[in-house]
């Protein structure tokens, strides 16, 4: 089928929902649930953009299998032009969500693409796994499916038993047996962002975690399943869509992508859905060998550029409305946001310009500038939220709601809350947005998400340290030391 519409997405989710639990209740239809429906509608709007009369051509390409127009995030980039086209498509989706939905479908589309393009890597494990990953990629591309993933095992203790990046496996999701029909897995994984709103889930090792050498066949695997597979349950965190209006909670009421723990209760994974099994070394090197991290990094950093742009625009409107643009301390803080934006944008552009065809024939951006951009953003985003606190100060406190504006105190609010550049209603609307960006429960989750969704800052530093080639600089300094 061609690239689907928002109505197609919602219909499939309504007809085949995951087994979802939220606040002790089972949710039968996430498209109708008051705290999940708005996020589903936002995802639907992303799919609708694929049929937009003007933007649509930048969102799709012709399927190599059917000739139908399919989502451009599925493209296997062979040229710089392909990579740039994919980047524009990712940017269009990120601008709809203002960068506030980190797990839009393009993230895992490019991840599965990279693994399928390098399918020979899976074939080293078992020959049939090569065809499995290729077939799966074609399946999600031709049906335009929404994926979630879950990568990290729960831990009884953070006390390391091996190297800094190694995962304990005593409570990990594990293969409990093999059958003629497939493997049976049991256990739990975190964190399936977008899980309750997705069609399928893919499970593979995280880039910031490593299986210990003695993990064995039970813990080394990669597979994918429909989210409504029997025995699989999604336990959601508390929703940050509080059922308020777009005026009161402009972000939370639109962009709740939901995070979930996934419980696998002796779930059967058919053999055709298994991509890797029982090889710890292959599991630990899968991301690097297939350049998966480079391609997902391209999506993440593109999204982060958009998020910086949003924060800059918001900061500028706040200071303009309050008449504080000429204060030097204000200029210094806004300049810091500008620096974050330009550093992130420059690292993204470097990765796109320096992209080269890899061993799998894919035009691949270099991982290092993207890794640096992602690592820096872990510190950038919480700081930008903090800057919003300083810029808004008292205007973020005792903030009226839409009901207040329309209630008995409406005239008083309009008399006393206007500024030299904005009416009271404009001011309140703006600072409701600022509140939802830096103070609300939705805002706090954004900070936590950016701190940890790609691994914490220390783990990212360890990855950067281990991967970066420090020897050329070291040898150059050593050469200078040895000069007569």
Please give a structural write-up:
The model has no long low-confidence stretch (mean pLDDT 94). Strand 3 (60-62) and strand 4 (69-71) form a beta hairpin. The protein contains 16 helices and 14 strands. It is an alpha+beta fold.
Q: Quick gist of this model?
A:
The chain is an alpha+beta fold. It has 16 helices and 14 strands.
How many E strands?
14
- Poorly predicted sequence stretches spanning 5 or more consecutive residues: none
Oligomer: single chain
Question: Element order, helices and strands?
Answer: HEEHEEHHHHEEEEEEEEHHHEEHHHHHHH
Helix count, DSSP H or I runs of 4 or more residues? 16
Proportion of strand residues: 5-15%
Rg over CA atoms: 24 Å
Strand arrangement, major sheet: 2-1-10-11-7-6
Whole-number average pLDDT? 94
Specify the biggest β-sheet: 6 strands, mixed
As a percent range, the share of helical residues equals: 40-55%
Termini separation = 71 Å
Structural class: alpha+beta
Q: Shape from CA axes?
A: globular
Element layout with pairings:
Elements: H1 6-15, E1 20-22, E2 25-27, H2 37-49, E3 60-62, E4 69-71, H3 80-97, H4 106-117, H5 119-123, H6 127-143, E5 147-149, E6 174-178, E7 182-189, E8 200-203, E9 221-226, E10 232-236, E11 260-270, E12 274-277, H7 280-290, H8 292-322, H9 328-353, E13 356-357, E14 363-364, H10 367-392, H11 402-405, H12 410-416, H13 424-438, H14 441-452, H15 457-467, H16 471-481
Parallel strand pairs: 1-10, 5-8
Antiparallel strand pairs: 1-2, 3-4, 6-7, 7-11, 8-9, 9-12, 10-11, 13-14
């Amino acid at each position: 089928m061609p690239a689907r519409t928002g109505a197609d997405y919602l219909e499939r989710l309504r007809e085949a929902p995951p087994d979802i639990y939220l606040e002790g209740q089972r949710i039968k239809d996430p498209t109708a649930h008051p705290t999940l429906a708005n996020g589903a509608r936002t995802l639907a709007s992303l799919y609708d953009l694929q049929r937009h009369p003007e933007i649509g051509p930048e969102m799709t390409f012709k399927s190599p299998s059917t000739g139908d127009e399919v989502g451009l995030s599925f493209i296997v980039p062979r040229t710089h032009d392909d990579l740039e086209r994919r980047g524009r498509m990712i940017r269009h989706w990120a601008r709809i969500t203002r960068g506030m939905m980190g797990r839009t479908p393009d993230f895992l589309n490019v991840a599965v693409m990279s693994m399928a393009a390098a399918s020979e890597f899976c074939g080293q494990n078992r020959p049939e796994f090569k065809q499995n990953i290729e077939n799966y990629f074609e399946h999600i591309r031709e049906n335009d499916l929404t994926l979630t993933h879950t990568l990290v095992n729960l831990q009884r203790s953070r006390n390391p038993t091996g190297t800094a990046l190694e995962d304990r496996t005593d409570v990990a999701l594990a293969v409990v047996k093999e059958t003629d029909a497939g493997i049976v897995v049991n256990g739990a994984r975190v964190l399936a962002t977008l899980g309750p709103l997705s069609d399928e889930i893919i499970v593979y090792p995280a880039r910031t975690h490593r299986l210990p050498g003695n993990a064995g066949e039970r813990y080394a695997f990669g597979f994918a399943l429909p989210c409504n597979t029997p025995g699989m349950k999604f336990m959601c965190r508390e929703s940050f869509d509080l059922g308020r209006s777009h005026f009161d909670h402009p972000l939370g009421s639109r962009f709740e992508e939901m995070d979930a723990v996934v419980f696998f209760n002796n779930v059967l994974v058919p053999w055709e859905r298994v991509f890797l099994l029982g090889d710890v070394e292959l599991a630990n090197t899968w991301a690097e060998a297939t350049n998966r991290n480079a391609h997902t990094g391209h999506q993440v950093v593109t999204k982060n550029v958009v998020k910086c742009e949003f924060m800059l625009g918001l900061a500028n409107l706040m200071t303009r409305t309050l008449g504080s643009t000429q204060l030097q301390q204000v200029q210094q803080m806004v300049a810091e946001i500008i620096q974050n934006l330009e550093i992130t944008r420059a690292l993204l552009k470097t990765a796109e310009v320096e992209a080269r065809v890899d061993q799998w024939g894919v035009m691949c951006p270099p991982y290092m500038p993207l890794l640096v951009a992602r690592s820096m953003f872990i510190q950038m985003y919480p700081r930008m939220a903090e800057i919003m606190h300083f810029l808004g100060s008292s205007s973020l406190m005792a903030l009226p709601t839409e009901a207040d504006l329309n209630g008995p105190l409406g005239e008083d609010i309009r008399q006393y809350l206007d500024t030299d550049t904005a009416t009271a209603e404009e001011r309140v609307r703006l600072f409701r947005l600022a509140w939802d960006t830096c103070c609300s429960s939705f805002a706090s989750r954004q900070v936590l998400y950016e701190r940890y969704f790609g691994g914490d800052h220390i783990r990212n530093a360890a990855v950067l340290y281990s991967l970066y080639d420090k020897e050329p600089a070291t040898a150059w300094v050593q050469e200078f030391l040895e000069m007569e």
